[in-house]
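User: C-alpha cells for this complex, please. No commentary.
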Amino acid sequence: MHLKNDNSLFEYLVRLGDDRLILGHRLSEWCGHAPILEEDIALANIAQDCIGHATHFLNAASEVENKIKTADELTYFRDAIDYKNLLIMELPKGDFAFTIVRQFLVDSFTFLLYEKLQNSGNKFISDITTKALKEVQYHLRHSSQWVLRLGDGTELSHEKTQNALNILWLYTNEMFESDEIENSPSLKNFITKSSDLESEWENKVISHLQNATLKIPEMQTNYLSGGRRGIHTEHLGHLLSEMQIVARTYPGAKW
Amino acid sequence: MVTVETETIQQIYNLLKTISDPEIPTVSITDLGLVRNVEFINNKVIVTITPTYSACPAMHFIEREIINTLQLNLFENVEVKINLNPAWSTDWVTKEGKIKLKESGIAPPLPIINKVEFKQNTITCPYCNSNKTILKSEFGSTACKSFYFCEDCLTPFDYFKPI
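Assistant:
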C-alpha cells in the first residue's frame, strides 16, 4: 500500500534521503585523497552505497508526492533551507580521524534505525532499509575497527581522534530529537521514533569509544541542531553549490 | 504437464542466461541470482530483477540488455521491474556461477549462516588454491568485492563478499 499526498511521509523520506546524500557527498571528497589506497577505495565504496540509499529514498519521496518533483530535481534544485539532513552529515570532511569518527557515530545510529525500519508497515521504507541495512553492517564494521586503531594507536592518532570526537559529540544529540513529523499520526505505524534509539546507541557507542581509550566529552547543554528544520551550518551551502552547479548551469542535460 | 506458457518462460530464462554482468563478463545475470521472476501474461514478458548493492551502477545497463535481448528474439512487449526486497544475497549465486567466478580470478562467496557474520574465514586463493591469504580491505574494486592478497603466489585478488 502506498499512501499518496501524505506530507509527513514525504518529509520523513526526504530526511532519510538527505542524510545519505550529504554524507555520501562528503565521503566522495576523499576519492583520490585518502591516506592509503585501500582507504581511498573503501571510502569511495561507502560513498557510493550512501548515494544509492539516497536515490531510493528520494525516488520514494517523489512517488509519494505524485512525482511533482523527481529525485534529481529534489537533489539539484533545492536550496539549503529545503534540505533536511542532520548537521553532522554536512560538516567538512576534516582529517581522516574526523571522517572516521563521524562515520562511526553515524553508522551506529543508521544501523539501529534501519534495523527497526526494515519492519515498517510502509513498503518504501521497509524495502529500502532492508536492502541498505546489509551494506550499513559493513560500513559500521569498517568505522568501528578504525576507531579502535586510531584511538588506541599512536599518541598523535589518539590526539587527532579525541579532537574529532570533542567536536562531533556536539552534533550527536540532534539524531535523537523527535519532532512533530516523527510524531504525526500518519507515520505512527511506519517509523520508529529516533528518540527511542538513544539509550541503545549510547550504550554501544560509549563502550566502544572507551575501548578505543577515548574520553567521552562532558556536555549538558551546548548541543547543536536545526538540520531537520532547514537551519544549516554555512558548510551546506558550499557543498550544494559544488554538487548542483552543472545541473543548474545546463538544466535538463543528460550524460 | 508442460504447457505452452511454461515452455515460453523456459525459453525466456534461456535467453536471460546469455546476458553477462557488465562488471564480471564471464558470469551471467542468472548465475548471480539477479533474476527473481519471469512472467508471461497476454504476450507481455515481465522480468523482475534485483540489484546486488543499492547503488549498483549496472542495473540500468542490465535492464536495457534484457529488453534488447528479448526483443531481438521476438518478444516485443517487455517490462523490467526492479525489486529491492527481499534483498539480494550472495547465497543466490548458483554453483555454476561460483565456479565461473573462481575461473575469472575472483574467490566465490562463502555461504551465509543466518545473517552476515563478521568472523574472519579463510579465503582460498583463486589462482593457486593456497589458504595463506590476508584481507587487505573489506572494500574492493566494486561494491560487491573485498580485496585480498595471497602470500604464497604473491597475487592480489578479489573476494566476492557475503551479503
